[in-house]
């Protein structure tokens, strides 16, 4: 195991331990999404074997070129972190009418599946990503979508972007865990600045584990509370994500957060 400096999709420099198992924990997921239950164990093993070479190649690109490695990954199709479909729990919340209406933001949107999944006449969604190639792919995939007038993709750095409007909803998944723990307080400040006083932050807390190094860095509910509570943003509910794809079950919780009224008036 070695140590190097890289730039993750947040645009922030990171020191990361070269640990393949932690990458595999995050990325070895896609083949299981449609696997019949009777073939689940076989699919899990097959997934790990097939995905690891792509993870290895992705790591080589990123570590060999810290400033442009992620762009090269998108160019070469080496994106094992991309599920290729919307996050199941987000789709469920949308279908049940359990998401705030208004303006929504998905930071680190990648190829844009979550953005399009919740875009509708009652909700305009902005997908934000620092990767030019990710935004190009999202645009190519969904520019002809029937709901195209209800979403937009934007190439920008979450930590420096200054939008003209605030958001009623922010959805964060595999973004918080991508940044170094030292940057999490800055992440929380940006959430506060981008969210309306009565807006909602929805987080999928993942990966809840004890692995070392990252990204993805291990997270816990406390890690979110530690940076959000001082800003007056507290969880209204934290529950197990029963819609988690099989490899992530038991390591993922759904958190719904809102700013306390007394704090927002200071």
Summarize this entry quickly:
By secondary structure, this protein is an alpha/beta fold. It has helices at about 20-25, 40-65, 70-75, 90-95, 115-120, 130-140, 185-195, 220-230, 260-265; strands spanning about 5, 15, 100-105, 125-130, 150-155, 165-175, 195-205, 235-240, 255-260. The model is unreliable at about 1-50 (pLDDT under 50).
CA-based shape: globular
What is the CATH superfamily of one domain? Vaccinia Virus protein VP39
* Helix fraction bin: 25-40%
How far do the termini sit from each other? 47 Å
Q: Write down the oligomeric state.
A: single chain
Element order: H for helix, E for strand = EEHHHHEHEHEEHEHEEH
Structural class: alpha/beta
The overall pLDDT, averaged over residues, is: 80
Largest sheet: 7 strands, mixed
Give the C-alpha Rg. 18 Å
Q: What is the CATH C-level name of one domain?
A: Alpha Beta
Strand runs, count: 9
CATH domain fold name of one domain: Rossmann fold
Number of helical runs? 9
- Please list the strands of the largest sheet in the order they lie side by side: 5-4-3-6-7-9-8
Q: Which ranges are low-confidence, i.e. pLDDT below 50, for 5 or more consecutive residues?
A: 1-49
CATH architecture of one domain: 3-Layer(aba) Sandwich
β-sheet strand percentage: 15-25%
Pfam family, one: TPMT
Protein name: Probable thiol methyltransferase 2 isoform X1
GO biological process, one term: methylation
GO molecular function, one term: S-adenosylmethionine-dependent methyltransferase activity
